[in-house]
Amino acid sequence: MLTFNCSQAGSDFFSRIHKGKKITPVEKPPIPSAEGDALHADPNQWLVHAATVKRKHVLVATHLKTRYSMLFFDMKKADDAGFVKTFTHRWADGVMNIALKCGVLDILSPQVCDPLLSGLGSTYCFYPRSDRSSQGQINEILRVFKWDAEGFDFVKQPWSARRYDEAINHTPRTIPGIKGYGWPEEEMLIHWLTAFGAIDAATARAAREQYRQAQRSRALS
């Protein structure tokens, strides 16, 4: 099950008032509630934060384990189902693109992946729970996006959300369990191959080296 931990702004975004009553998908987390390392180790945990840029709603979702992030611009308020549908499509599309670019797409077996992907967003929950280190990364992503929005009209001009995500995730970040800095797109690729591609440890190591070789070639070109 996908778990979307929401900042206060994120919780407010997914909530609405109807006839004086608050309607929200955000529910109290289990007691005791996981936090810190326990949250970071769980591959199903995301942090979602909301902001307003140019009077439009912006959401940023960050995967706590890998720090892979996606930015969603001009989302409809209080539409959790619409968000999850857009989220799962973008997530799958982004990771498939990473796998294609570094030549490991053939590792993913359609027979294994298709049933998993078809049900990827079918079960999810929203909790009012934050994570300080991930929130710091989200704040930086939003700072850059606001700066970009000063010189680009994201409403009227065509832009690729996937390409924007690529830039975010090809930026070195502090990642739980990694000494120094790591690349969110690399960690998400390996996570995806392991979780959805059902590959073994040796194949995962080979895929990681293939990714790194592709990045070295990219840097030299």
Descriptive report:
The protein is an alpha/beta fold. It has one domain. The chain contains 8 helices and 7 strands; from the N terminus they run βαββαβββααβαααα. It has helices at 8-13, 37-41, 80-101, 110-118, 132-151, 161-169, 184-196, 201-220, and strands at 2-6, 16-18, 21-23, 45-53, 56-63, 69-73, 124-127. The protein has a 5-stranded mixed sheet, sandwiched between helices. Strands 2-3 form a two-stranded antiparallel ribbon. Strand 5 (56-63) and strand 6 (69-73) form a beta hairpin. The longest helix has 22 residues, at 80-101. The chain is globular and about 55 Å long. It starts with a strand and ends with a helix.
Distance between the termini: 41 Å
List low-pLDDT spans.
none
The proportion of residues forming helix, as a percent range, comes to 40-55%
How large is the count of helical segments?
8
List the helices and strands and how they pair.
Layout: E1 2-6, H1 8-13, E2 16-18, E3 21-23, H2 37-41, E4 45-53, E5 56-63, E6 69-73, H3 80-101, H4 110-118, E7 124-127, H5 132-151, H6 161-169, H7 184-196, H8 201-220
Helix pairs in contact: 7-8
